[in-house]
Amino acid sequence: QGTGSGFILSSDGRLITNAHVVEGTEEVKVTLKDGRSFDGQVVGTDPVTDVAVVKIEATDLPTVNLGKAENLTPGEWAIAIGNPLGLDNTVTVGIISALGRSSSQVGVPEKRVSFIQTDAAINPGNSGGPLLNATGEVVGINTAIRANAQGLGFAIPVETAERIANQLFSKGKVEHPYLGIQMVTVTPELREKINQDQDFDLKVTQDDGVLIVRVVPGSPAQRAGFKSGDIIKTVGSKPVKNATEVQQGVEASEVGSQLEVEVLRNGKTKLIVVRPGAFPMENR
């Protein structure tokens, strides 16, 4: 039986935590700071962003103010609150070390989150608790996803967490837009490696950009006409420099809507209109 942290979103008992904290269970025991205990219902989980929501039957609960992670700057204060090792209401302080850490940089490539990095101590029991700014507003959800990361804490930005939480409360699930491409950010070294690798059968002529190395058969990307070897220039009319920015552009779109993607193919710019599908559950 594990413990984790969470925080109250609304006075009528809507709570948010990490998906991995409530994994595999539909009911949880929720203990508040004042010692009261409630039975909580897990309303929905989203393993792709590691966000989950829980409902308890209560009224007039104290709530937190939500800030904006996009307004953070490295070097400012960061405060983490949680229950590491079952030690209630532990507060740790540090700074915001970096912003926009991609899932692959953090070592969890299967997630779709642009993480906040902090040196405030975040241990397994802290997972799901709030990361606050100096004025006490929530800017992220702490997530202890790297057990071996000494002095490195990561948090899911509050904007992502709130968007996912709202979808989970209204629909019980989240659909993530999905194209079905494997891509890499090109560097001069990688260009050389790909051009020498017989398995790729690709000739890359530029030292930067986002290269599609594979299009998943039967995917929205294949139906729209993407090909391996295409270099992605823009997503939704925004220029992209790396694979993370492509992923963010796709994530900002909606399943079934039209998304315009500009690619460079054989030296010529081509506009492709794709309808993102829902991220397949078996990929999680």
What does this structure look like?
The strands form four sheets. The chain has a six-stranded antiparallel beta barrel with strand order 6-7-8-11-10-9. Strands 13, 14, 15, 16, 17 and 18 form a six-stranded antiparallel sheet that branches. Strands 1-2-5-4-3 form a five-stranded antiparallel sheet. Helix content is 14%, strand content 36%. It contains five helices and 19 strands. It is α+β, with helices and mostly antiparallel strands.
Quick structural overview:
14% of the residues lie in helices and 36% in strands. With 284 residues, it is of the alpha+beta class.
- Can you tell me the CATH topology of the largest domain? Pdz3 Domain
Distance between the termini: 23 Å
Beta fraction of the residues? 35-45%
Q: Low-confidence parts lasting 5 or more residues at pLDDT below 50?
A: none
* Global Rg: 21 Å
Name the average pLDDT.
Answer: 87
- String of helices and strands: EEEEEEEHEEEEHEEHEHEEHEEE
Do you know the CATH architecture of the largest domain? Roll
